[in-house]
Amino acid sequence: MGFETATPVQEQAIPFILDKKDVLACAQTGTGKTAAFLLPILNRLTEEPHEGIDTLILEPTRELAVQVDQQLEGFSYFTPVSSIAVYGGRDGQSMEQEKRALKGGADIIVATPGRLIAHINLGYVDLSTIKCLILDEADRMLDMGFIQDIRGIINKTPRDRQTLLFSATMPPKIRTLSKQIMNKYEEVTIAVSKPAEKIIQGIYEVEDGAKIPLVAHLLTGKKRLKRVLIFAGTKRSVKDLAINLEKQGMQAGDIHSDLDQSERELRLRSFKNGTLPIIVATDVLARGIDIKGIDVVINFDVPNDAEDYVHRIGRTARASASGVAITLVNRKDRHRFRRIEELMEMKVHRLPIPPELAELAEAEAKKKPSKGSGRGRGRGGSKHKGSRKPYKKKR
């Protein structure tokens, strides 16, 4: 699998998990936390006899469920361990396929809370044999309003189960939940709210009207850049930017909530295999998507807080690689970005506007700040069609 040494979160968490202790782990994305819980669970499953569903892994989004399912498939390839991925956002046929797979049984289920609750309510899944419950990206699940679903699922599992809670941040609500659902637990904390050292960060102080020309200028002719990921805060900004980049001869795809699941997955696959070099996305991709070789991350606007900033730019410089993160900051967002710098305890380098765009940038700077700043609906985007099998089962 290419592993040579354990990452800090793996080094600290795996011994506790192998000892069957409950674990509360705080680690930012890109630290190897998925392997930190998958590997010891697979080790136990290959050594201990078990009946029924042994391990349940809850993920906040379909994208994360798919990603963890794929990693699990790779790790377990030469073992007898079986798994099923259960996640929403698809048609009724996939629900029926998931039902049949669940009836057939599996050692591990990877699921989103809402979809799993639907199967529980319909009597398709029995969690009474669960020995290990894993809540991945727990802070994200709470932010998305899944707390009642999570409690409902937990109530269906045995009290003597092992519980592993992994979170990128540690707000008070996570500690409260931990005390409610876990026995005496071990705590692991790894580098919160600090970008990876190998990310070269910079910002352009530029108004909205000059942002698209600036991004186009930065990317034009840069053939050495294999993968560029651009984050924007609204669907309209995402669509408009993707359209403009395509008009200038660049291959760019957009990913946002208007797309169905198969469209998102196809564009991600194209991005991953290098046939689509530029992706423009809303924050649906900010967490958890692990694609190697992203050269540059561009924040078309300033994220809401330091954690979101770290999550966004953490898509580059994965593992031992280096990467570049550029943020475009208008005058309204300068105070917010300074606050982000304070929380990260670092100053991000200010970059000079390219001479070719200096006149446009100066003209935009003289305008009064707009109220909308790109809010609303838009149209466009590249057209891709594709699908993924709605569940996977290994025997």
From TrEMBL:
<feature type="domain" description="Helicase C-terminal">
    <location>
        <begin position="213"/>
        <end position="361"/>
    </location>
</feature>
<dbReference type="GO" id="GO:0016787">
    <property type="term" value="F:hydrolase activity"/>
</dbReference>
<dbReference type="Pfam" id="PF00270">
    <property type="entry name" value="DEAD"/>
</dbReference>
<protein>
    <submittedName>
        <fullName>ATP-dependent RNA helicase</fullName>
    </submittedName>
</protein>
<keyword id="KW-0067">ATP-binding</keyword>
<dbReference type="InterPro" id="IPR014001">
    <property type="entry name" value="Helicase_ATP-bd"/>
</dbReference>
<dbReference type="InterPro" id="IPR050079">
    <property type="entry name" value="DEAD_box_RNA_helicase"/>
</dbReference>
<comment type="similarity">
    <text>Belongs to the DEAD box helicase family.</text>
</comment>
<dbReference type="GO" id="GO:0003676">
    <property type="term" value="F:nucleic acid binding"/>
</dbReference>
<dbReference type="GO" id="GO:0005524">
    <property type="term" value="F:ATP binding"/>
</dbReference>
<keyword id="KW-0547">Nucleotide-binding</keyword>
<keyword id="KW-0347">Helicase</keyword>
<dbReference type="InterPro" id="IPR011545">
    <property type="entry name" value="DEAD/DEAH_box_helicase_dom"/>
</dbReference>
<dbReference type="InterPro" id="IPR044742">
    <property type="entry name" value="DEAD/DEAH_RhlB"/>
</dbReference>
<feature type="compositionally biased region" description="Basic residues">
    <location>
        <begin position="368"/>
        <end position="395"/>
    </location>
</feature>
<keyword id="KW-0378">Hydrolase</keyword>
<feature type="domain" description="Helicase ATP-binding">
    <location>
        <begin position="14"/>
        <end position="188"/>
    </location>
</feature>
<dbReference type="GO" id="GO:0005829">
    <property type="term" value="C:cytosol"/>
</dbReference>
<dbReference type="GO" id="GO:0003724">
    <property type="term" value="F:RNA helicase activity"/>
</dbReference>
<dbReference type="InterPro" id="IPR027417">
    <property type="entry name" value="P-loop_NTPase"/>
</dbReference>
<dbReference type="InterPro" id="IPR001650">
    <property type="entry name" value="Helicase_C-like"/>
</dbReference>
<feature type="region of interest" description="Disordered">
    <location>
        <begin position="359"/>
        <end position="395"/>
    </location>
</feature>
<dbReference type="Pfam" id="PF00271">
    <property type="entry name" value="Helicase_C"/>
</dbReference>
<dbReference type="InterPro" id="IPR000629">
    <property type="entry name" value="RNA-helicase_DEAD-box_CS"/>
</dbReference>
